[in-house]
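ok trying again, last paste got cut off:
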Amino acid sequence: AKPENVFTFTETTEMIQLFDFDTLAAMDENGGIGGMASYHNYGTKGYAPMEQQMGKWSRVGTYSDVYSVGALLFYLIFGRVPEAPDCERNAKYDYNTSLYVGNCYQDTLFPEMSDFFQNTLANYYRDRYFDMIPLVEQLQLLETYADTREPFIISASAGTILPFLS
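nice, full thing came through this time. structure:
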């Protein structure tokens, strides 16, 4: 999944469509792809996981799509594709270099976003979310922390952001 393959519907922001038909493959009952050794190595560098870039088709599965979604969101936040240091097990992400620097978000957003990237961009496929269910759950959590319309209080003494209770 790269930005050029994502189409939005003008009628709604709740629905998008992904077009990436050159990398479609049938999944077996274990979520893996079998018998792909003779297939051409497809994928766009930066958006395709290591197992796909290296042609290790026995390791391609639902977690490979997880990587692509993480890479796409990384691009949307930082304006660049993830590089090797961004995919390491305990990678640190500098949100001061993001495209959204200067906006005020709840302080919980950035640690949760780092957790998201560490579980989607991991080089080793077994270190990623297995499928889209935990990925979507984490995205929903991030959405609540990133909502600048929800009132919250920044505590100068504690250096934390507290939810505003009315």
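cool. Residues 39 and 112 are 37 Å apart (CA to CA). The longest strand covers residues 12-18.
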